[in-house]
Specification:
single chain, alpha+beta, 6 helices
Length: about 325
């Protein structure tokens, strides 16, 4: 698991990319609109870039989810997800001014200068968009808070065949689980409405209703294929819907995931907030690196304190 403070996922709508995403040809970049955003961002925050901070590494990957429907396919706008803040920036121009302001506002150590305080925004309605983020007109951007879980699976065929073959299979398994879960909850809600003699009430939306499942480009550790990263928002609730999940706000990295493991991952980690020890590559814990002056971003399994009441470990069971 690579050490990183933040993860930018660029929505490309494609399932594979060049071996190094920053080397994607201009022609291919134009096909997804907005040029090669990965190259532009890495030039800014990567080694030698004007916003590079060795104590604040930013992981940048391409993702398979398509750009926002609000983006004209022929425009130079891109859409990105940003973790651990769980933000969706639907319209990001690939221009020097916009990207510099994006890096200045979103991709800096919160302990330095006067950054945007995302933690104060987490209690707002997930549908609410925020203006006034400091972006210069006419390139002022808005962002939305992502209220549901994000599951990323490495499927970078051009980089490694193992991930390229297993990634799409795992993606479909996760999608199938979520579809069945959502369908079941809707049926249950309709049954409750019918038995209570209430008319016209829409089915209650389940927590996985807006879940994002997508492939991602190389995230390191091909020997651990299938690689799965699960980001749970800071307000993510446990299965009972009342208590906060023990893993809320964290990123869980699993390796050597097979299709037979998907059911257990969804039931135990996503719903109940329990870590499956045998699959664990590490945990990304924002609270740790915000509080730690040494800026430890990722906790490998060997350093995890299993006595921590906030980390519930779960022995792997074959489902």
């Amino acid at each position: 698991m690579p050490p990183y403070a933040q993860h930018v996922v660029i929505r490309t709508g494609r399932n594979d990319w060049s071996s190094k995403i920053e080397d994607e040809s201009d022609t291919l970049g134009e096909q997804i609109g907005g040029g090669n955003l990965a190259r532009s961002l890495k030039a800014l925050v990567g080694r030698g870039g004007s916003y590079h901070d060795p104590l604040w590494p930013v992981l940048i990957t391409n993702g398979s989810t398509p750009r926002s429907r609000r983006v004209n396919p022929l425009s130079d706008l891109n859409s990105v997800f940003l973790y651990p803040q769980h933000l969706h920036i639907a319209q990001l121009p690939n221009t020097p001014t916009s990207l510099e302001t994006f890096a200045e506002t979103y991709l800096k150590d919160p302990g330095k200068e006067n950054p945007v305080d995302f933690q104060d925004r987490r209690h707002h309605s997930p549908e609410e968009r925020f203006d006034g983020t400091g972006f210069p007109f006419p390139e002022k951007l808005t962002y939305q808070f992502k209220s549901s879980v994000t599951i990323l699976i490495c499927g970078h065929m051009s980089r490694d065949t193992r991930c390229g073959i297993l990634g799409p299979i795992l993606q479909q398994e996760f999608k199938d689980f979520i579809a069945k879960d959502v369908s079941l909850r809707r049926r249950q809600a309709r049954n409750v409405t019918a038995t209570s003699h209430k008319v016209g009430n829409p089915p209650t939306r389940g927590p996985l209703e807006n879940a994002t499942v997508g492939l991602t480009s190389h995230i390191g550790g091909h020997a651990f294929a299938g690689n799965v990263v699960i980001y749970l928002p800071p307000n993510w609730r446990a299965e009972d819907g009342k208590s906060l999940s023990p893993l809320a706000g964290r990123g869980i990295w699993y390796g050597r995931v097979e299709p037979r493991h998907v059911w257990g991952i969804m039931e135990e980690t996503v719903k109940k907030g329990r870590i499956i020890e045998e699959l664990l590559r590490g945990v990304h814990d924002p609270q740790l690196w915000l509080a730690n002056t040494k800026r430890e971003f990722a906790i490998p399994p060997t350093k995890l304190d299993k006595k921590d009441v906030n980390l519930n470990f779960y022995k792997l069971i074959e489902y």
